[in-house]
Amino acid sequence: MESKAVVSLTNGKKAFGDNEVLKDISLTVNAGDVLAIIGPSGGGKSTLLRCMTLLETLDSGDLSYGDLTVCTNDAAGRAVYGGKDVIAAAKTRFGLVFQNFNLFPHYTVLQNVTDALICVQKMPKDEALARGRELLARMGLADKESMVPCDLSGGQQQRVAIARAMAMNPDVLFFDEPTSALDPELTREVLKVIRDLAAEHMTMVIVTHEMAFARDVSDHVIFMDGGVIVEQGPARDVIENPQAERTKQFLARYRENQ
To answer: According to a count of CB atoms within 10 Å of the terminal CB, is the N or C end of the chain lower?
Structure first.
C-alpha cells in the first residue's frame, strides 16, 4: 500500500534580507512517520518549521498538506499562497508545540486545551470539555485541569501544550525543540509522551538536540546546516553511521558533550 503524504515541501527557499536561511529544501512526511530534524543553531531548522506551519512565508517553493495546496510558485518563481480559506483549512491539518510552551497564562489548563475547539471549530462546549479531559488524562494531567500554567512544572506545561496541539485532531504534530527549556528530569517526562505518540503512529516532525531520542524514536533524520539538507536517511544510519563530513563533525561534538 502506498504511503500517504501528509505534508510536502518542494524547493522551499527563505531569506531575511541578504541572509539565505533556507536554500532549496525539499521533504515529504508520510502518514505515521516520525521525522527528526537535527543540526547546529542557525542552520535553518526552526525557520523551516515556521515556514511549514505558516508562521513565516516562503519566498519560493511548493507547500501542501495532503490534497491541499497551500502555496505554489508563480511564473517568476515566487511563492503564491492560497486565500484565507486555504490557510484556515491548512491550519486544521497540523498542531505545533513550541519550546516555550506558549500557553495562555490566565486560562486554566482545561481552557488552554479546549479554547480552539470551542472558538475556532465551534464544537459544542460539553463535547470540547470531554475531549480536553480525555487528552489531559492521556498526558497524566487529569488532576490539573483547573490549575493555571504558572502552577505547573515546565514538563507539565509542555504536556498541556502537546494536549492542546492534539485537540484539533491534526494530521501531523510539529515540535520545535520541545525539551530545550527543561531540565533533564522534565525532559525525560516530555520525551516519554512523544515516544508514546510515536508508538501510536502519530505523524510527527521534531526539531531536537536529543540525539539518542532522535535515533531511537524517529524513522528518518534530516541533518541541516547552512540552510541546506546535508544528509538524510533512516534515523539509526544517520546518527550512528553518518556519511557526510559535516554530519560526522556535528555528531562527534555532540558525543564529546555527553
So the answer is: N
Residue 137 CA: distances (Å) to CA of 151, 158, 163, 198, 235: 18, 14, 9, 18, 31
Written as nine digits, the cell of 119 is: 472558538
d(CA 5, CA 11): 16
Per-residue cell: 19: 541572509
Residue appearing with cell numbers 515516544: 195
Distance between CA atoms of residues 146 and 120, nearest Å: 22
Please name the residue that has the C-alpha cell 483547573. Answer: 146
pTM: 0.93
Q: Answer yes or no: are the C-beta atoms of 168 and 91 closer than 8 Å.
A: no
CB under 8 A, 24+ apart: contacts of 147-153: 147/108, 147/109, 148/105, 148/106, 148/107, 148/108, 148/109, 149/101, 149/103, 149/104, 149/105, 149/107, 149/109, 149/112, 150/105, 152/109, 153/186
CB contact at 8 A, 252 and 211:
no
Residue 148 contacts residue 140 (beta carbons within 8 Å): no
The C-alpha cell that represents 97 in the structure block: 508545540
